[in-house]
Design goal:
Number of domains: 1
CATH architecture: 2-Layer Sandwich
Order of helices and strands: EEEHEHEE
Strand content: 25-35%
CATH superfamily: RutC-like
Number of helices: 2
Number of strands: 6
Shape: globular
Length: about 130
């Protein structure tokens, strides 16, 4: 019915969840990706742009582990620690996706794990 997606090219889960799930019917649900560099275990130096890039690279790695890429993504959710970071996040996000763009929600939340500025989750299909 469901299969966990797991790669060491993205940070390990920091709680009781999978990096992603492949569901029956070829739908893939990726957990929110924090901007943790899997090689260092730390956030990249810089601010929202660097953290957005790392979160998207982590998601790409999980998609790749399932034989997918960003073209398979149909929906994303972007969580921001500050809505003022929407513009810079959007600039980096636009570098990763091509038309037709996936559907997206983006909103600010009070806090993100480990003090991250951004977290991005995805739904993809084969």
């Amino acid at each position: 019915m469901k299969k966990a997606l797991n790669t060491n090219q993205a940070p390990a889960a920091i709680g009781p969840y999978s990096q992603g799930i492949a569901a029956q019917g070829s739908t893939f649900y990726l957990s929110g990706q924090l901007p943790i560099d899997p090689a260092t275990g730390a956030f990249p130096e810089g601010g929202i742009k660097e953290q957005t890039r790392q979160s998207l690279l982590n998601a790409q790695a999980i998609l790749k582990s399932a034989g997918l890429d960003l073209n398979n993504v149909v929906k994303t959710t972007v969580l921001l620690s500050d809505i003022a970071n929407f513009g810079p996040m959007n600039e980096v996000y636009a570098e990763f996706f091509q038309e037709p763009y996936p559907a997206r929600s983006a909103f600010a939340v009070r806090d993100l794990p480990k003090g991250a500025l951004v977290e991005i989750e995805m739904i993809a299909v084969e």
